[in-house]
Amino acid sequence: MERPKQIIECGDFALRRRRGQCDFDLAFTLVGESLDHLRPWMPWVAHHSEENTRDFLAESDAKWDSGDAYNFAITRNGGLIGMCSTYRGAEPEGWYMGDWLHPAVTGQGIRRRRAVRRVPLRLHL
Protein backbone atom coordinates (compact mmCIF):
# COMPACT_ATOMS: atom_id res chain seq x y z
CA MET A 1 0.00 0.00 0.00
CA GLU A 2 1.31 3.44 -0.91
CA ARG A 3 1.46 5.97 1.92
CA PRO A 4 0.32 9.57 1.56
CA LYS A 5 2.89 12.28 1.04
CA GLN A 6 4.44 13.59 4.24
CA ILE A 7 3.69 17.18 3.18
CA ILE A 8 0.57 18.13 1.24
CA GLU A 9 0.55 21.76 0.09
CA CYS A 10 -2.88 23.41 0.15
CA GLY A 11 -2.18 26.98 -0.93
CA ASP A 12 -1.72 29.18 2.15
CA PHE A 13 -1.47 26.21 4.52
CA ALA A 14 -0.09 22.68 4.43
CA LEU A 15 -0.72 19.28 5.94
CA ARG A 16 2.55 17.99 7.37
CA ARG A 17 3.18 14.61 8.90
CA ARG A 18 3.37 15.06 12.65
CA ARG A 19 6.96 14.82 13.83
CA GLY A 20 6.39 12.82 17.01
CA GLN A 21 8.00 14.32 20.09
CA CYS A 22 9.50 17.14 18.00
CA ASP A 23 5.94 18.53 17.77
CA PHE A 24 5.28 18.20 21.50
CA ASP A 25 5.59 21.87 22.52
CA LEU A 26 3.55 23.12 19.57
CA ALA A 27 0.86 20.43 19.91
CA PHE A 28 0.53 20.77 23.69
CA THR A 29 0.15 24.55 23.42
CA LEU A 30 -2.27 24.34 20.49
CA VAL A 31 -4.57 21.93 22.31
CA GLY A 32 -4.32 23.94 25.54
CA GLU A 33 -5.36 27.13 23.73
CA SER A 34 -8.23 25.29 22.01
CA LEU A 35 -9.76 23.42 24.97
CA ASP A 36 -12.98 25.45 25.25
CA HIS A 37 -13.42 25.38 21.49
CA LEU A 38 -12.88 21.59 21.25
CA ARG A 39 -14.66 20.42 24.41
CA PRO A 40 -18.17 20.06 22.87
CA TRP A 41 -16.93 17.75 20.07
CA MET A 42 -13.71 16.14 21.25
CA PRO A 43 -14.15 14.17 24.50
CA TRP A 44 -10.40 13.50 24.75
CA VAL A 45 -9.71 17.14 25.71
CA ALA A 46 -10.99 16.39 29.23
CA HIS A 47 -7.78 14.39 29.70
CA HIS A 48 -5.40 16.95 28.17
CA SER A 49 -2.02 16.65 29.87
CA GLU A 50 1.66 16.59 28.98
CA GLU A 51 1.73 12.80 29.41
CA ASN A 52 -1.31 12.22 27.19
CA THR A 53 0.08 14.51 24.51
CA ARG A 54 3.44 12.68 24.53
CA ASP A 55 1.66 9.30 24.39
CA PHE A 56 -0.56 10.47 21.53
CA LEU A 57 2.41 11.70 19.50
CA ALA A 58 4.31 8.43 20.06
CA GLU A 59 1.20 6.48 19.07
CA SER A 60 0.86 8.66 15.95
CA ASP A 61 4.34 7.66 14.82
CA ALA A 62 3.65 3.96 15.41
CA LYS A 63 0.33 4.12 13.54
CA TRP A 64 1.95 5.89 10.56
CA ASP A 65 4.60 3.19 10.43
CA SER A 66 1.98 0.41 10.60
CA GLY A 67 -0.30 2.10 8.05
CA ASP A 68 -3.24 2.25 10.48
CA ALA A 69 -3.43 6.06 10.66
CA TYR A 70 -1.83 9.06 9.02
CA ASN A 71 -1.72 12.07 11.34
CA PHE A 72 -0.92 15.53 10.07
CA ALA A 73 -0.26 18.93 11.56
CA ILE A 74 -2.09 21.70 9.76
CA THR A 75 0.50 24.45 9.38
CA ARG A 76 0.61 28.01 8.12
CA ASN A 77 3.79 30.04 7.82
CA GLY A 78 5.64 27.43 9.88
CA GLY A 79 3.15 27.56 12.77
CA LEU A 80 0.75 24.85 13.88
CA ILE A 81 -2.92 25.86 13.42
CA GLY A 82 -4.70 22.50 13.70
CA MET A 83 -4.52 18.77 13.27
CA CYS A 84 -5.88 16.32 10.74
CA SER A 85 -5.96 12.52 10.74
CA THR A 86 -7.08 9.78 8.44
CA TYR A 87 -7.45 6.39 10.05
CA ARG A 88 -8.72 2.89 9.43
CA GLY A 89 -12.37 2.32 10.15
CA ALA A 90 -14.69 -0.61 9.83
CA GLU A 91 -15.15 -1.99 6.35
CA PRO A 92 -16.72 -1.38 3.87
CA GLU A 93 -16.06 2.36 4.41
CA GLY A 94 -12.44 1.64 5.21
CA TRP A 95 -11.01 5.05 6.10
CA TYR A 96 -12.23 8.02 8.10
CA MET A 97 -10.95 11.55 8.36
CA GLY A 98 -11.10 14.04 11.19
CA ASP A 99 -9.67 17.47 11.80
CA TRP A 100 -9.82 20.48 14.04
CA LEU A 101 -8.47 24.01 13.99
CA HIS A 102 -7.32 26.52 16.58
CA PRO A 103 -10.25 28.91 17.24
CA ALA A 104 -8.21 31.87 15.95
CA VAL A 105 -8.23 30.43 12.42
CA THR A 106 -11.80 29.12 12.17
CA GLY A 107 -14.10 30.74 9.62
CA GLN A 108 -11.32 31.25 7.07
CA GLY A 109 -12.31 28.40 4.75
CA ILE A 110 -9.38 26.18 5.76
CA ARG A 111 -11.49 23.12 6.55
CA ARG A 112 -13.42 23.51 3.31
CA ARG A 113 -10.19 23.71 1.29
CA ARG A 114 -8.70 20.78 3.25
CA ALA A 115 -11.85 18.76 2.53
CA VAL A 116 -11.23 19.19 -1.20
CA ARG A 117 -7.91 17.36 -0.64
CA ARG A 118 -9.71 14.26 0.69
CA VAL A 119 -9.97 12.57 -2.67
CA PRO A 120 -6.26 12.80 -3.59
CA LEU A 121 -5.27 11.77 -0.06
CA ARG A 122 -7.58 8.76 -0.13
CA LEU A 123 -6.26 7.64 -3.52
CA HIS A 124 -2.87 7.04 -1.92
CA LEU A 125 -4.36 4.81 0.73
What keywords describe this structure?
globular; alpha+beta; 125 residues; 5 strands; 4 helices
Tally of helical runs:
4
Strand order of the largest sheet: 1-2-3-4-5
Secondary structure category: alpha+beta
User: Strand fraction band?
Assistant: 25-35%
Compute the gyration radius: what is it? 14 Å
Biggest sheet layout: 5 strands, antiparallel
Low-confidence blocks of residues: 115-125
The overall strand count is 5
Q: Could you report the average pLDDT, rounded to the nearest whole number?
A: 83
Quaternary structure state of the chains depicted:
single chain
N-to-C order of helices and strands: EEHHEEEHH
* N-to-C CA distance: 7 Å
- What is the share of helical residues? 25-40%
- The backbone outline, from C-alpha atoms, is globular
Can you characterise this structure?
- The structure is a single chain.
- The N and C termini lie close together (7 Å).
- The protein has helices at 24-38, 50-66, 110-116, 118-123, and strands at 7-9, 14-17, 69-76, 79-88, 95-101.
- The protein has four helices and five strands, in the order E-E-H-H-E-E-E-H-H.
- It is 36% helix and 26% strand.
- It is an alpha+beta fold and 125 residues long.
- The protein has a five-stranded antiparallel sheet with strand order 1-2-3-4-5, covered by helices on one side.
- Strand 1 (7-9) and strand 2 (14-17) form a beta hairpin.
